[in-house]
TrEMBL record:
GO terms for cellular component: membrane. This is Major facilitator superfamily (MFS) profile domain-containing protein. Keywords: Membrane, Transmembrane, Transmembrane helix, Transport. Its main location: membrane. GO terms for molecular function: transmembrane transporter activity. It is found in: Membrane. The chain crosses the membrane at residues 85-105, 111-130, 142-162, 168-192, 204-226, 313-330, 337-359, 365-386, 398-420, 432-454. It comes from the Eukaryota. Residues 46-459 form the Major facilitator superfamily (MFS) profile domain. It holds the Pfam family MFS_1. It is a multi-pass membrane protein. It comes from Pseudopithomyces chartarum.
Length: 490
C-alpha cells in the first residue's frame, strides 16, 4: 500500500519504492502536516520554472511544422522527402548525444539546463537565416544535440525532490508544457504570419528568429530560479530542509554517486530499459507525427494555412487535460500498466479513424483529438514507470535518458512514413503508428509480467532466508533494482 494512503498522522515509512519493500528497512517518523507544507513549497519552487523552460523547448522543436506551411517549403524548395529529412535529423542529434549529455547534467547540475537553452536557441535563430535546405539540415542536427539532455535532465531533477508516490503527477504537469506548446505554436505562428515580408524576410523565418530570441531571454532570466540538486538547496532551511533531505535519501537522487563507462554500458544492457524504450517509442512516434504533420494534414482537409495553425490549439489543450487526469489516477491507485494500456487504446482508436479516412473532415479532425489524448497519456507513464523502478543516481539518470532519447527514434519512422504523395490521407504514416502502438502495448505487457515474476521470486526468498535489516549505504542505493529487497512498481 502506498504511504500516502495510510490514514495516520504519523507513520513509519520504509525508504525506496512506495509500493513495496524497499532498498532498506531504515524507518523515519513523518509529520504529515509538515510534509504537506513542504510539498506545496516544492511545487511552487520547482515545477513552474521547469514548466516554462519546457514550453520554450517544445516550441523551438516543433516550430518547423508551422514554418513549413508559412512559406518555408516553397522558398527552400523542400520537394520530395527533404522536409522529412529536416525533421528526422533533429532526432539523430538527440539520439547520439542524449545519454552523454545527461551524464554531464548530473555532474554539473541543474543550471546546465539554461546553458542548453541558450545553445539550442542560437541554432533555432540559425534555422531562420538559412538559404538552402542543406543548411537547414545542419542547424536542425545541431539543435537536436543541444536539446538532447533537457527533458531527461528535468525529469531527473523532479524525481530528485519528490517521492515515488509524487513523481508521475509532477512529471505529467511538467509535460503539459510541451503539449500546450503545440497549441501556443499555432497561435504564435498565426500572429507572426502577419510579418511576412518585414525586412525582406518571409513569415517562416520570423517564426524561427523571434522564438529563438525569446528562448535566450527566458533562459537568462531563469538562471537564478532553476533549483539546484537537493543537497545544495538554498530555498529551504532548518527542519524543512532536513525533512526534504530525508525524503531525498528515500528517493531517486544520490548526491555521492559516481559512474564509469563500463557502468553505463552495464545499465544499458538491462532488458527492462529496452522494454521502456519500446513502450516510449510506440507512442512517441505518434506524438511526433502530430507535432510535425498536423498543420499539413489540416491544410490538406481544406483549412487555410492560418486556420490550420489555429485548429491545432484545441487538440493540444484537450490532450493536456486528459493526460493530467488519467496520470493522476494512475498515481492515486499506484498502478501503471493498465493506465498505459488505456492510453494505447485511446491512441489506437484515433489512428483507426485516420486510416479509414472518413469523408467528413470533422470526423478526421476528431480522430486527432484521440491521437493526442492517447499519446500524451502513455508517454509520461512509460518514462516514469521504468525510471522509478531503476533505483537512484546515475542508474536512474541513464534509464530516463535511454527511454527518452532512444524512444525518440520513433521520429525517424514518422518522418519517413508520412509520404507527401499520400497527402492528406497519409495511410502509410497512420498505419505505421498503429503498428508501433501495438508494439508499445506488447512491450508494456512483457515488462509488467517480468517485474511481477521477479517480485514474486523475491517475496518467496524472504521467507526462506530472513536477513537483518539492510543499512542505507550509497552502495545499496546504487544497486537499485538489482538489490534483493527491491520491489518493482507495477
Amino acid at each position: 500500500m502506498a504511504a500516502h494512503a495510510i490514514p495516520m498522522e504519523k507513520q513509519q515509512v520504509l525508504t525506496g519504492s512506495n509500493a513495496s519493500p524497499s532498498l532498506t528497512s531504515n524507518e523515519r517518523v513523518v509529520d504529515r502536516a509538515a510534509e504537506r507544507r513542504l510539498v506545496r513549497k516544492l511545487d511552487l519552487r520547482i515545477i513552474p520554472v521547469l514548466w516554462i523552460l519546457y514550453l520554450c523547448n517544445f516550441i523551438d522543436r516543433a516550430n518547423i511544422g508551422n514554418a513549413k506551411i508559412a512559406g518555408m517549403e516553397k522558398e527552400l524548395n523542400l520537394i520530395g522527402q527533404r522536409f522529412n529529412i529536416c525533421v528526422w535529423v533533429f532526432n539523430l542529434g538527440y539520439l547520439v548525444a542524449g545519454i552523454p549529455c545527461t551524464i554531464l547534467f548530473k555532474k554539473y547540475g541543474p543550471r546546465s539546463l539554461c546553458v542548453m537553452m541558450v545553445l539550442w536557441a542560437i541554432t533555432v535563430i540559425g534555422c531562420g537565416l538559412v538559404r538552402t535546405w542543406q543548411q537547414l539540415v545542419i542547424t536542425r542536427l545541431l539543435e537536436g544535440i543541444c536539446e538532447s539532455a533537457f527533458i531527461s535532465g528535468a525529469a531527473y531533477l523532479i524525481g530528485a525532490y519528490y517521492t515515488t508516490a509524487e513523481y508521475l503527477g509532477r512529471y505529467v504537469i511538467f509535460l503539459t508544457a510541451g503539449i500546450i506548446a503545440g497549441a501556443v505554436n499555432g497561435f504564435i505562428s498565426s500572429l507572426i504570419a502577419r510579418m511576412d515580408g518585414v525586412s525582406g524576410y518571409g513569415a517562416w523565418r520570423w517564426i524561427f528568429i523571434i522564438e529563438g530570441v525569446l528562448t535566450i531571454a527566458i533562459a537568462l532570466a531563469c538562471w537564478f530560479f532553476v533549483p539546484p540538486f537537493p543537497e545544495d538547496c538554498t530555498f529551504l532551511h532548518g527542519e524543512e530542509k532536513e525533512l526534504m533531505l530525508q525524503r531525498v535519501r528515500e528517493g531517486g537522487h544520490n548526491a555521492h554517486d559516481t559512474i564509469t563507462f563500463r557502468d553505463a554500458l552495464k545499465e544499458l544492457s538491462d532488458w527492462k530499459i529496452w522494454a521502456g524504450v519500446a513502450m516510449n517509442l510506440g507512442v512517441t512516434e505518434n506524438a511526433n507525427s502530430l507535432a510535425n504533420f498536423q498543420p499539413t494534414i489540416l491544410k490538406g482537409l481544406g483549412y487555410t494555412a492560418t486556420s490550420a495553425q489555429v485548429h491545432t490549439i484545441p487538440v493540444y489543450l484537450t490532450g493536456a487535460v486528459v493526460s493530467v487526469i488519467i496520470c493522476l489516477m494512475s498515481e492515486r491507485f499506484n498502478h501503471r500498466y493498465a493506465f498505459y494500456l488505456l492510453g494505447c487504446a485511446i491512441l489506437a482508436s484515433g489512428l483507426i479513424i485516420e486510416i479509414v479516412y472518413p469523408r467528413s473532415a470533422g470526423t478526421k479532425y476528431a480522430g486527432m483529438f484521440l491521437v493526442a489524448c492517447g499519446a500524451y497519456v502513455a508517454m509520461p507513464i512509460s518514462i516514469i514507470w521504468v525510471s522509478i523502478n531503476a533505483g537512484s543516481g546515475y542508474k536512474r539518470a541513464i534509464a530516463i535518458a535511454a527511454i527518452i532519447n532512444f524512444g525518440t527514434a520513433g521520429a525517424f519512422v514518422s518522418s519517413n512514413v508520412f509520404l507527401f504523395k499520400e497527402a492528406p490521407r497519409f495511410r502509410t504514416g497512420f498505419s505505421t503508428g498503429l503498428g508501433l502502438t501495438c508494439m508499445g502495448a506488447a512491450a508494456a505487457t512483457i515488462y509488467f509480467i517480468g517485474c511481477w515474476m521477479i517480485n514474486n521470486q523475491r517475496k518467496k526468498g524472504e521467507g526462506e532466508t530472513k536477513t537483518e535489516p539492510v543499512s542505507e549505504t550509497s552502495e545499496v542505493k546504487k544497486m537499485g533494482w538489482e538489490h534483493p529487497d527491491f520491489r518493482f512498481v507495477l
